[in-house]
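Dear colleague,

Following up on yesterday's call, I've attached the two folding results inline so they're easy to grep. Please treat them as preliminary; we haven't cross-checked anything against experimental data yet. The first protein's sequence and structure tokens come first.
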Amino acid sequence: MISIDQTVVAVALEPMARSLGLTTFVTHGVVLVYILALAAFVPVGGMLVRRFGLLTAFRSGITVFALASGVCALAPHGDSAEPFLLTARAVQGIGAALLMPVGTALITEVYEERRRGKALSVYAGLAQVFLVVGPIVGAFLTQLLGWRSVFLINVPVGAVSLWLMTRARLTNEPQGGPLSIMQPLLMVSSMVLLVLGLYQCGNWGVADPRTLAALAAGAVTVAVGVRLLLRSPRPLVDLRLLRIRPYAVGVALTFLVQGPQLVVLVHGTLFLRQSMHLSLLATGIALLPLVVASATGTFLSGFLRDRTGSARVPVLAGLTAATIGAAAWTVALPSQVYVWQVPGMILTGLGTGLPVPALSAELMRVVPADKRADASVLRSTLRQLGGAIGLAVAGAVVLAVNNDLSDAVGIITPTATRAAFAVASAALALALSLAAFLLPREGRTR
């Protein structure tokens, strides 16, 4: 539910924009605000898990997520549509943030040490699959039931999830401890200010005083927040874990991969729909090479890691393929011929699917056992923040390149799409360079 809702709205964005009269800024923001709320509140979810227990946090998260999803589907027409929809999506992201720490914590609790790494790898892999399947699911739902159905579907799914948890026979054992107010406040405000400043560059301009003020305020708040977290005996996120070099490298690579993956998924879907004028179902079918390749890479990742004894092989292979694929897809976009886009889709999907599962298992391996819960929260936070920053930067570039007439009706021109893909390609190239130099070279052959 958490992963698929990052991208399930991609195909529904264009019908939604036409129905509600949304601008490009808002349609892009419908995806961005969800991921930003998810990144900002994951640490709060971790705090609530410790304070109230796994089951309480899970039930609260499911309830908030499902209800906010239903509210998104009730977005009205007129001037109130934009603030209504963006607010509901932010609340939906908060609900998802309460859920995210629970999944990893439950797997850590249920599986014994020798099986835990594989279980976490499968968990991360399934999340990757649902992330890329989102646009296809959205295409079929929107075609058959309208764009509001991509939100309404979460209501019965949430109800079934709550019912299944009553049969799981899990105990609710809160650790207790105080609830911190200042740390969450600083973390949320710093992320919002930073991402807002980056995104608004496209509207306000890089040198605009409002942009500079937002970025400066975000940077100052980040600095204050980091200092507070490092000095706290019980930090909301344990930044001291970044002193473990393999963990820090893995988190940095996960951060860099998340943004490009979301950019090509969202903007690639919109390009097929808006520039190539494919029907909703045709758009979903056209994305199959990307989705199948990503699923293949996701499940191949664990095999390669186990075979070599190192995350280096799947990560480097994946980032190489993804960088070449995103660049090839970017070059193929102006032709608007689908067949020329397929090779880039396949390489991009395979490449972005390979790194994350291997990195997820590796991250849990290199941290002490008693720090795995904290390591999972920090990894999830920075991964989602990477997605938010990647989307914000790509969105700013799109807003700067797009013409005013297209902006007003929620249309992204082919030139703007190509600019967004160029941002994704550059980020993947940076990740590949860092991985080549920083990932450990040791491995083994079984």
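Below is the second protein, in the same order (sequence, then structure):
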Amino acid sequence: MTTKSILCVGVGVPGLPEGWEIIQVATPADARRHVQARPCAVGLLLVREADQRDVLHGFLQEHWAQHWIAVLPPALLAQPAWRQLVRDHCDDYHTWPVDNQRLRHALGHALGMAVLRADDAAPRAVGDAALTGQSAAITRLRRQIAKVAAASAPVLIWGESGSGKELAAQAVHAHSPRRKGPFVPINCGAIPAALIQSELFGHERGAFTGAARDKRGLLESAQGGSVFLDEIGDLPMELQANLLRFLQEKTIYRVGGTRSIAVDVRVIAASHVNLEQAVQRGAFREDLYYRLNVLALDVPPLRERRDDLLPLAEHFFHAFSGERAPRVKGFSSRAAQAIREHDWPGNVRELINRVRRAMVMAEGRLILPQDLGLKGTTAPAPLALDDVRIRAERDAIDASLLRAGSNITLAARDLGVSRMTLYRLLAKHGINAPSRAGYTDGQSE
């Protein structure tokens, strides 16, 4: 029988059957030390009348991802502040004296939900998440990045604002032979025109008023690594000529300098405007465009990554968990539908901002469309009964796969169908099958 670990905070452990491992600690301070060494997915909070609500509130806010069940004296539960604590932080509650059978049932249910959500327990960094997913568009981009990274030629990345161009550039650098060298990002549109030449190429002492000493430019500081020129289309024409010379000769001249300096860096450039059209308008040098456009990458907008929307939203929910209102536990089915239907003109950056806003503004346990600022984004036309049934079926499958971390066995169990039936439903609704979408079938569990 699989051991079930319960972190029990407080005095007096109710009777539990064999197979349950009770890890007893007396205070929240002891629990903090234990959780750092050995996390438990389910916690049992044994509250007495002498306990301080503020101390417990701070502890539970820190460990919100655990499934907590509280046992309280009836007198405390009659107080509004304690009822608020239970609403905000606990999946269930009981009062003293404990009904052991009811408590065992509640703990079993909490443990089952913890298993379904296990994949969310260790979220990746926010930046990494933007390039993860199982959609065809992002899978294709990852394959291209792996090929491009191995070469040494310049890279030109195109993508809409907020789509993750810098993250793609970082991935190219991280998978390249230069990964041990520096990665220096430069926003060409953010540096004042009067300073950009000095910032890029550096300057010699006395080159201009205030140049009290020699200064290395950003290109020099990237020696042995990669330089990322973001929004290269905003680079002034005279600087475009200097950059072209650097790409051709691999040397630079500092402002006010007379000697050439060899610089070994890989140039990765990005733009949200079409540089080919900018060349035709005379706003960008044609020779520089062809120098940069040796290896091209297109970062897909979020609207072309529909299969990634909900996993990304869940990821950002966990990544920014410290900002959320205590009671907020996740997304409602209506919010998930609104996320799927929105066009996301601001791409990943917009998704992050809307999720963070909803985590603060939500008033219930689940985020609603209006919390995301997506209320009224769709005006559904009247649906036939068959259409309603199909939509409900697809929504149920999507929600189960999300809860199960894309594990087919767990999702089928959650839906009350066999694995083969779930596979047939995936095909029926055009949801990516496991072999293509990265789902797991749970056979090895």
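For the second protein, one point worth flagging: The two ends are 14 Å apart (CA to CA).

Best wishes,
A.L.
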